[in-house]
Amino acid sequence: MKFDELDAMMRVYETANDRCVEQGVYMVARIDGRSFTKLTKEKVSFNAPFDVRFRELMADTTRHLMNCGFKVTYGYSESDEISLLFDLDINAYGRKVRKYNSILAGEASAKFSLMLGELAAFDCRICELPDRKTVVDYFRWRNEDAHRNGLNAHCYWMLRKEGVAKGAAAAQIEGRTLEDKVALLASRGIDFYTLPKWQLRGTAFYWVDDEKRGYNPKEQREVVSSKRAIKTDIYLPEGEAYAQLVRGMLP
To answer: What is the tens place of the pLDDT at every residue in 64-113?
Structure first.
C-alpha cells in the first residue's frame, strides 16, 4: 500500500470524532487546575485560604491565554479555574473542539509551570452556549461559585488554624446556611463583608483602549497613541451589576 493510501485510511480514525461548534453559538472555555490541592498545600507553600501570589499566577496565566492566538473577549478567574469567552465569530481551527481543548490546556499548563517552577497541569472543556442570556448566566454562576467557595474557605481555614482536624472542620461547615457561616466568622472577629473582593467574587479580564501620551520633538507637539490592553479587575460587583458588566462584553 502506498503512503498516500495509508495516510488517507488512517486519517479517518484520527478525525472520526472531530466535532466542530456551529457558527452562531457562543463558546466559553473552562480551564481547571488538576490536583491543585496537592500542588498548593504539599509541593508549594501558599498562605491559606488565599494568597496574592497564587492569584497573580492565575492572572498571568489568564492574560497569556487571551494572547495566545484565540480571539477572547472576556476572561474570568476564581480559585484554580479560568473561563474564557471567545468572540462570537471566532473561526480559529475551524472551531474544532479538540483543538481548543488541547491547545488551551497545554498553554495554561506550560505558562503556570514556568512561572511556578513546579509541574502544574490544567484540563479544558468547551461550553457551548446558545445565546447572550446563557452566557451572562454562565459567568454569574461562576461569580456566585467564587462567593460560596470564598466563604467556605475562610470558615474552614479559620477552624483548621484553631487546631480542628480536617474532617471535623469540614463537618462543621457542611449543611450550614450562608448566614450561619458569616456568623461563625463574626464570632471570631472576622467581618466577611469586609474581606477582599477578589477572594469572594474572583477576577475579571477584558480589553480596553490604553492611551499613552508622548512628545514628538520633530513636530514639537504632544501626541496621544492608543493600543488595546487587558484590564485586570479585582473589584467585581455581584448580582445584576456583575451581569451588566458581562453584557457589555457581548455583541
So the answer is: 999 999 999 999 999 999 999 999 999 999 999 999 999 999 999 999 99
Residues ≥6 apart with Cβ < 8 Å to 251? 88
Q: How far, in Å, are 23, 149, 157 from residue 193 at the CA level?
A: 42, 14, 17
pTM, full prediction: 0.90
Query: What residues does 209 pair with on adjacent strands?
Result: 228
145-164: buried (b, 16+ CB within 10 Å) or exposed (e) per residue? ebbebbbbbbbbebbbeeee
